[in-house]
Amino acid sequence: MIAFWVTAGVLSAAAAILILYRSARAASREAPVDTTAIFYRRQLTEIGDLADRGLINFDERKSAEVEAGRRMLVAADQPSQVWSTAPSRLPILIIAIAAPILALGLYLGQGSPGAADQPFAGRLTRWLASNPSSLQPSEMAAVLNKLTKDRPNDPDGFRFLALAEGASSNPAGAVRALKRAVRIAPQRADLWEMLGEAEVFQAGGDLTDDAKEAFAQTIRLDPKSVAARFHLARARIKAGDKQGGLAEWRALLADMAANDPRRADLEGAISEASQAAPAPRAAPQGLSGDQMAAVRGMVANLAHRLETHPDDPAGWVQLVRAYAVLGDGAKRDAAVKTARDRYAAKPEVLDEITKAAATEAMK
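Below the sequence we write its predicted structure tokens.
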């Protein structure tokens, strides 16, 4: 590292010296050249060249030549404007040489010139040997990326990779992983459902054609899928079939268990769509009502998934952050308490939970 800084400093000083040397040669000329006339003569030559190649017609050529000639005559009547250099170049030379030396000195005093390189391969090896619960979402995603390459036919590996990519705020990576998973196991409804939700999240709450196809596949394999039924009904409402979509939502609500945490969000979506009452919470600026309902539906699905599979530190961090972004303080605090109780012996997870809870709510 020290060698790099020394080389960079020497090259910077050499470049400054070269520039100053050339400017000194220009300044040493007895009669500085006025380049104005040269510029317009070259312009006239270029106009003729364009005309010879047929790029401008005769009238355009004459008009351009007249205008260039007029400007050349006007410039000839003006006082000559020539390039000049500063009378003293020594201070500039001193600064140009001192700056890299000063930067090197500051680095040696305040930096870490003795720190070893941290190549990605080395870090990945350490992450592979670490306890998964101690890894950050991005580190876990890198580990799972490596593992899925070693086990390319394991759909659950790609499912876990998608969860890690989602927790790392990389929805595109989650979609790619889930597309690979459904190619391996096209009969699994849970993978199609996750793919549909990832597509919706990547599109900012919009229900794209790919998301609709994923949810249609989910319904074909699991007609009781809450997420798929919710989003397909929302698609009907957005397409103009409001009554049909509301009927499907009400049927879904009737089929859901009384203690299902997703009921409140579904009831709010029904209320907002039917305009019978205001939505329970105002949608943040920039998202429409149905987009906000989709986001809340995905958050509710994540909460439901953590109830059945709670050993997922990255999932808890994502859930706490989602509640914080939505401005739902009560659910955020409840999720924080549950996660802290579960991971009381893991300070690195508690630190991520605390950071997630401090996320600013959408305005």
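Confidence is low (pLDDT under 50) at residues 276-287.
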